């Protein structure tokens, strides 16, 4: 398996630190709003990387954080007149719902920055003790970038170039830094902000230190893969490397993977530009499996432009796979004969070549677009060779291959309508529980949510019944 490593700018053969195991950290979202489909790109991509690793027999320890202390969260809390914690708790729950909708597996651990402050104080103290960090007059702790000669190795930036760029870009607080390149590890609280006590001042951590600490705690000092969107290469990941390698005295991560942006009209989709769609909005219009397909139909290192046309073609392409799967299931159920004929046995063997093509594509830096092409070749094969006269075993065998490959991509072959009933039932159960607990607000919210999906609830003597509007 070869992975394109941002660190070396080459595809490299993947060799895990420990045989059969993968330690992987993916930078997660800052939770102050519903996630947009740009944020969904790394989630879907690295979930697929994980699934493929698991398919290859690796045990994957997959850690992805939620950044739950940040200026944007504080701002939103002030706007709503609630605590930052209320905001982050709400949007973590919403994010998890979106992840489930996109069939992104929960991480092995989803650490929260605010629960890991002790580890951050510990790492910052070590960095100060080793001379890699210093405390300024107001209690801000800075990382001393010049003490780390390898700074810039991930983003392939040269310290001198960085320095001259910074000289023209003086920002506030700059005067108390020893060097304009130095970055914040800990900063003093401002009025009304959440804070923690520390040896330096009451305050809160800088963003970069969070990931260095959470990665070390849940995966160890050295990990196999660190991943995120390409905007994180500099400064976030560069700073994580500086902190972790100076603190631990070891290489931090062996392989650095970065996805390219999801764009709209060739501009990065982002909250600040306002040119985004939330996953929730897309989910109202499409089965989120269509979004997953759309993401996987491009290479993760290529920019991807979002458009209604591409979503429509993703929808019909996914439909083609699903129709094939449903026809194979039908054939399996209604076949006249049970066991394989000699000819079918040979054909089934031949069909394994699609698995080989799929693996070859995925082994080449997770080329999901080519992997999908192999899936479509299999669909074509199935449509030609599994006919009314086929045996149940043959239909089952071909369906088995199709399901196996789609599972790796996290594509669910059942149609949304088929799973909708379960979803409705579980929402109804949640509403009943809310009513029992006298949480009528939540109960009403669920009724409205169902209504939006076109489901009308009726309270009857036999319990709650539902019907489509
Ligand atoms: P944020 O909440 O902005 O820190 O983003 C969380 C993750 O989403 C990071 O890995 C970002 O790099 C990634 N991300 C944000 N916007 C986009 C986009 N338009 N395309 C691809 N990835 C993105
Ligand atoms: Zn991070």
Please provide a written account of the structure.
The protein has 469 residues and is α/β, with parallel strands linked by helices. It folds into three domains: 2-259, Rossmann fold, CATH 3.40.50; 282-408, Isoleucyl-tRNA Synthetase, Domain 1, CATH 1.10.730; 422-468. The chain has helices at residues 37-55, 71-80, 84-101, 117-129, 159-167, 207-219, 233-248, 279-285, 288-296, 308-334, 342-363, 368-385, 392-409, 416-436, 440-452, and strands spanning 2-5, 10-13, 21-26, 59-64, 133-135, 141-143, 183-188, 203-205, 223-229, 253-259, 262-264, 267-268, 304-305, 455-460, 463-468. The chain has a four-stranded parallel β-sheet, with helices on both faces. α1 packs across α9 (288-296) and α2 crosses α3 (84-101). It is globular, with a radius of gyration of 25 Å. The relative contact order is 0.11. The mean pLDDT is 94. It binds adenosine monophosphate and zinc ion. Zinc ion (ZN) is lined by residues 27, 211, 236.
Could you provide a short overview of the structure?
This protein has 469 residues and is an alpha/beta fold.
**Name of the CATH superfamily of the largest domain:** HUPs
| Count of alpha/pi helices | 15
Named at the architecture level, the CATH assignment of the largest domain is 3-Layer(aba) Sandwich
Which band does the percent of strand residues land in?
A: 5-15%
Poorly predicted runs: none
User: Which structural class matches the secondary elements?
Assistant: alpha/beta
- Main β-sheet description: 4 strands, parallel
Query: How many structural domains can be distinguished in the coordinates?
Result: 3
The coarse overall form would be globular
Number of strands: 15
Query: Mean of residue pLDDT?
Result: 94
Examine the coordinates and then state which fold CATH places here, giving the name of the CATH topology of the largest domain: Rossmann fold
Taken in chain order, the helices and strands follow as: EEEHEHHHEEHEEHEHEEEHHEHHHHHHEE
CATH class of the largest domain: Alpha Beta
Give the proportion of residues in helices: 40-55%
Radius of gyration over C-alpha positions, nearest whole angstrom: 25 Å
- In which order are the strands of the major sheet placed? 4-3-9-10
Ligand catalogue = adenosine monophosphate, zinc ion
Query: What is the terminal separation in angstroms?
Result: 50 Å
């Amino acid at each position: 398996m070869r992975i394109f490593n941002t660190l070396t700018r080459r595809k490299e053969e993947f060799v895990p630190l420990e045989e059969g195991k993968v330690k992987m950290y993916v930078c997660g979202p800052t939770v102050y709003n519903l996630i947009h489909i740009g944020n969904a790109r790394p989630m879907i991509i690295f979930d697929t990387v994980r699934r493929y690793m698991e398919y290859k027999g690796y045990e994957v320890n997959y850690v992805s954080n939620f950044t739950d202390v940040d200026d944007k969260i504080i701002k939103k809390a002030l706007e709503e007149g609630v605590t930052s914690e209320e905001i982050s708790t709400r949007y973590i729950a919403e994010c998890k719902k979106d992840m489930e909708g996109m069939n992104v597996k929960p991480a092995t651990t989803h650490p929260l920055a605010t629960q890991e402050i002790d580890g951050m104080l510990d790492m910052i103290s070590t960095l100060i003790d080793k001379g890699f960090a210093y405390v300024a007059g107001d209690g801000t702790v800075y990382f001393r970038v010049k003490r780390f000669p390898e700074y810039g190795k991930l983003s392939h930036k040269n310290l001198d170039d960085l320095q001259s760029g910074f000289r023209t870009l003086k920002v506030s607080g700059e005067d108390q830094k020893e060097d304009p390149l130095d970055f914040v590890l800990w900063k003093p609280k401002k009025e009304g902000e959440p804070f923690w006590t520390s040896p330096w001042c009451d305050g809160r951590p800088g963003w970069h230190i969070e990931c260095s600490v959470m990665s070390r705690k849940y995966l160890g000092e050295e990990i196999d893969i660190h991943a995120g969107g390409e905007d994180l290469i500099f400064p976030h990941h560069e700073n994580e490397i500086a902190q972790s390698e100076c603190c631990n005295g070891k290489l931090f991560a062996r392989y650095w993977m970065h996805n390219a942006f999801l764009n709209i009209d060739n501009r990065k989709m982002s909250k600040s530009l306002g040119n985004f769609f939330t996953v929730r909005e897309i989910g109202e219009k499409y089965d989120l499996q269509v979004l997953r397909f759309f993401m996987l139909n491009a290479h993760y290192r290529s920019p991807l432009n979002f458009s209604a046309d591409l979503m429509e073609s993703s929808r019909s392409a996914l439909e083609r796979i699903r129709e094939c799967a449903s026809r194979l299931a039908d054939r399996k159920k209604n076949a006249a004969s049970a066991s394989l004929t000699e000819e079918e046995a040979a054909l089934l063997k031949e069909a394994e070549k699609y698995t080989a093509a799929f693996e070859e594509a995925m082994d080449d830096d997770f080329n999901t677009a080519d992997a999908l092409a192999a899936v479509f070749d299999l669909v074509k094969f199935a449509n030609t060779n599994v006919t009314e006269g086929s045996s149940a075993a043959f239909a089952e065998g071909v369906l088995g291959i199709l399901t196996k490959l789609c599972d790796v991509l996290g594509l669910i072959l059942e149609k949304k309508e088929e799973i909708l009933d379960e979803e409705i039932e579980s929402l109804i159960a949640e509403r009943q529980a809310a009513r029992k607990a006298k949480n009528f607000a939540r109960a009403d919210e669920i009724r409205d949510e169902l209504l939006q999906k076109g489901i009308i609830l009726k309270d009857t003597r036999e319990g709650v019944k539902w019907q489509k509007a």
